[in-house]
Amino acid sequence: MKDLEVLTRYKAWADGQFLSALYSLPEAELTAPRPIVFGSLIRTLNHAYQMDYVWKCHLLGKSHGLTTRNPEDCPD
């Protein structure tokens, strides 16, 4: 159980670092097209959120219903 606790705490720390960096940026920087895998910072954040949801569903034994790592729908 200790390994799970360490990984969970690390994930929380990493999420905090990522979100702190994003909060300091103007909205235009979050949505600007970039030459990165998901096309923009906000789409990268959406990917991270969606993958957290997938893992949650796997752990609960539920279907997540997602068919792609980069869905067209992306919140503002």
TrEMBL record:
Pfam families: DinB. InterPro entries: DinB (IPR007837), DinB/YfiT-like (IPR034660). It comes from the Bacteria. SUPFAM superfamilies: DinB/YfiT-like putative metalloenzymes (SSF109854). GO terms for molecular function: metal ion binding. Keywords: Metal-binding. Belongs to the DinB family. This is DinB family protein. It comes from Onishia taeanensis.
